[in-house]
Amino acid sequence: MEKISYQIGVGCADISEKEKEYVNDVLGHQRLSYGPYTKKFEEEFAKAHGCKYAIFVNSGTSALRIAVAALKEAEGWKDQDEILCPAVTFVASSNVIIMNGLKPVFVDVDAQTYNLDPRKIEEKITKRTRAIMVVHLFGQPADMDPILKIAKKYKLKIIEDSCETMFVKYNGRPVGSFGDISCFSTYVAHLLVTGVGGFSCTSNPKYAEVMKSLANHGRDGIYLHIDDDKKLSKQGLFQVVSRRFNFIRLGYSFRATEMEAALGVGQMERRNQILGARQKNAAYLLKKLKPFEKYLQLPWHPEKVEHSFMMFPIVVREGVGVKKQDLVMHLEEHNVETRDMLPLLNQPIYKKLFGDLEKKYPVAQWVNNNGFYIGCHQKLAKKEMDYMVAVFKDFFKKK
To answer: What is the pLDDT of residue 62?
Structure first.
């Protein structure tokens, strides 16, 4: 096996000529703040995910932060009220809970999907529980039916952290349509790429109003964009002029620009192509890596769930004579990039904040110790995937 001379990454920036055209259009009009591209991107993205409103912001983390803040304000939550959160997720999911003065309560995950395990939720609910943050991890929707039943039973809000999952459906309904608020990311190497960016989506007009304000320094909603004082009656213009520099809550500067939105509009036009290529590549890798299932737990999802495959997660089985670290190093040394499967509870800052929680979450601990992912993005060529498989084969031929 001849080693390739470049790294096969876990993600890609796939920018087409159409996206470049749209960005140049923005530059040509010299309109960098909220404009027609942002408006179109928000409307199309909301519709694709079964929501009435979408607020385009500068990251998925910002989207999550204003989602939690809006719910806290609108529902009258108090500091140290609790939000349930999966024990395997990117650190931003629980960080935003802490940063809003609330307490994350961790719930173990399912050993096959790595998403929140509905069977573990009720034991974590207390009189201070206010919401469940459901994370659709690695491109796969969580098991929403039992989660929705639990939320209804205990009158809990649902926040969908769908930063790694777009456009796919659970039981015929798109991700993003289940929660009170759902959040997405368009960061580099995600499913849609705008460089930086994210969405907070909802069908609740009050939540949308608060989130728009929070993303704009806490500004009065009467004036959030430079078009909001156009085409008004004299009385309407008076109202805007008198209130447009009012700030009614503590907020943030989480706005994105028209350039990111222009990239997003172009990516939306190609979303089926992007998603289809990822799913096709994942199916190819599943087929080619199947001979190593004695050693590896490969991705799986039930028939009622579609998978967008933002990445290709793998867990090394225990008791088979294989160490994750050895396999990962073999892949990396042969220019196949890997990432850990989003360990959370063993992070230094979390051990400092919460102590040694990991042993209380055996599935999460198993994933942390044995899990990693590789890429299956749309720009992978067949020869690159064949090379990746050959690197696995080279490792396992010694076993």
So the answer is: 98
